[in-house]
Amino acid sequence: MASLTFKNNPIETVGNFPEVGQKAPDFKLVKSDLSEISLSELAGKKVIFNIFPSIDTPVCAAQLKKFNEAVANIDNTVLLFASLDLPFAFARFCGAEGIENAVTTSDFRYRSLAESYGIQMKGGPLDGLYARAVLVLNENQEVIYSELVNEVTNEPDYDAALATVSE
User: Fold this and answer.
1) Among this protein's residues, is 94 annotated catalytic?
2) Annotated catalytic residue: which of 4, 48, 60, 152?
3) Which of 1, 18, 65, 117 is the most buried (most CB within 10 A)?
């Protein structure tokens, strides 16, 4: 459990957010084309894993756009986004914004991230949705960067996350 804020009002999350050095828990998510993806399918690649409340908010949209631009020329790295939005919302957004470097996924079907990644918010107006977080995983799916954003309406530290990819 973590203590966060949403518009400066206290909220909590359920479970424990992965820390640097831990193996990332596996998951099963639904991509925009309704096919499924699990973490085990990404073995051998670095993963920049972004979790957020909803693509239909300005901060979440900015997060997707900024990371999409930043990874355009990074080899052997997958940019993965997840929320509880339906896959159709991601398809609409990415099509309208020209997002091509990201794998967008929904956890609506399995909620496999909620407790195992410790990001489901409890309390506040977004109760039940996922908090804003960024993980960077190495090729062995070990966490090399971990940020659970303290204020859900703030953007993550892009530079710090991207710096770990190039190490």
Assistant:
1) no
2) 60
3) 117
